[in-house]
Model the fold of this input.
Amino acid sequence: MRLSQFHLATVKEVPADAEIASHRLMLRAGMIRKLAAGIYTWTPLGLRVLRRVERVVREEMDRAGAIEMLMPSIQPKELWEETGRWQKFGGQLLKIRDRKDGEFCYGPTHEEVVTDFARNELKSYRQLPLNFYQIQTKFRDEIRPRFGVMRAREFLMKDAYSFHLTPECLDRTYRVMYDAYARIFTRLGLQFRAVQADTGAIGGSASHEFHVLADSGEDAIAFASGSDYAANVELAEAVAPATPRPAPAAPLERVATPTQRTIEEVSAFLGVAPAQCVKTLLVRGRDGLVALCVRGDHELNEIKAAKLPELPGESELASEAEILAATGTRPGFIGPVGLPATIPVIVDRSAAALADFVCGGNADGTHCRGANWERDARLTRVADLRKVVAGDPAPDGRGTLSIARGIEVGHVFQLGQKYAEAMGASVLDEQGKARTMYMGCYGIGVSRIVAAAIEQNHDDAGIVWPEAMAPWRVAVCVINPKHDAKVAEAAETLYRELCARGVDAVLDDRGLRPGAMFADIELIGIPHRVVVSERGLAAGAWEYRRRDEAESRALGHSEVLALFD
RNA sequence: CGGGGUAUAGCUCAGCCUGGUAGAGCGUUGCGUUUGGGACGCAAAAGUCGGGGGUUCGAAUCCCUCUACCCCGACCA
Done:
């Protein structure tokens, strides 16, 4: 490609609200342009990068035995009603109507469509297993799109769906996909970790997320220091304290805390550590309110709470009015001591190990001191309810946890029979009996990977692409070609030689001043640069520089070519 | 959904409080001088001041309303 004939659209200024590096750099490099909130045009430059990612993903999916297909992005309501997700998916589902007033959605994911396809196509166990994938534009009407293509509403995703007769077979394909994902992110030159994950609303059993490690990541990941255990903090188990609960030593007393409601206020006022307090949250249960207790220095993990049998599958805090009606007091003064017997008290493992603790007194302006479980406070059940924090013991018993941030770029699930069951997708087994299929699903955020890669690979001058993702591998830059025809000629020759050898090269023949040209080439992150100039020609050398190195080197003609063999 | 903010030249933004001739930088076009780290000079083009309504002799500026976008929070895969 000759840049004089390309549409390179770098800009100097970027809106003040582009906060993270990848968003700013993608705008400055002219890779994307915003059309509406969370909706972006990929420019020719941006598309080149997107295609590189796609190519690696496609090659590895094919190698792993998946079969590419393409499903519609517009999907009929009826299919989504079969699984109940027309309602359950919520506001993220973009619903549209056609001219006959028929209802459709723009697909945020394709479990329904692929399961419908499978139930029509697959009749015999002998056709299984099969793994179908596609690379396609999805739309999720995010409440708050942000960070450019990192959290866009319209985005490019690779999604794969596998079908099996048995859970064992599903498990085998799941491992194959897991390995394929690791290869994809390795080939793309990304630092990543696979972590145990929550299965969320998509449902199912086993699940791993693949995260690109970056401080700007929206997810928190817990790592063990002594093993390769890694889990999303949503899922990471908070183990019970090693030391058992001490015997009560203090008498229960009620103390006046007229205006102190938060743990910070109460602990400061009474001169006790937050870790010696019990925080009580009332949530809506299946059958009236439920009390959840965690230690004052811990936070409730709502994902864990939602899985409690006492809760309706989601954890929603009770309103102030509900709390007042049930307990006679207001948030800030709730505690497990003397709570109405109709309210189950579920206590986190760490909170359950406390003795002589401080908690709400269930009366306005009152807290209890010297409270103890069983003796003073009812304890229905102990459960893992809290978010892990750095320094917690690792769930596998090997070392302690530390917390890092990551960007979720891939997710593999074992769906089990959830969708096949709901939609009646079955095949006949050896005995001629209908058997509901087992499914797995495997997603990769193709467009998000582009942003994630930039988060991990940039400097003050711009993007530093990993080789596999770069829009071009090498840039040939000509200095002042109009002044000396021999310089222009030499650059042209080098460019052609590189192309002839199959090297993806770009010739910057725009005739810009050197400063502007170098700034552009560095901004768009080309991994290798060769400068052809009058000065170099006189010395019989080319000036070569790697994007990730500070110094350039003088190389002879054949040495330059040899770099790319 | 709640709270806050923004909308002015192709882009990034001033001007609005305190009503009175539409501004800057970057970019673009032309001419000239330049050519190893985002050059310089001269000239020029370019705006229904987001839409609608109101107040006023007069509205980018004040008021109402609609729309879009952004931020914080809640919510949600």
User: Anything to note?
Assistant: The mean pLDDT of chain A is 92. Chain A has 16 helices and 30 strands. The radius of gyration of chain A is 29 Å.
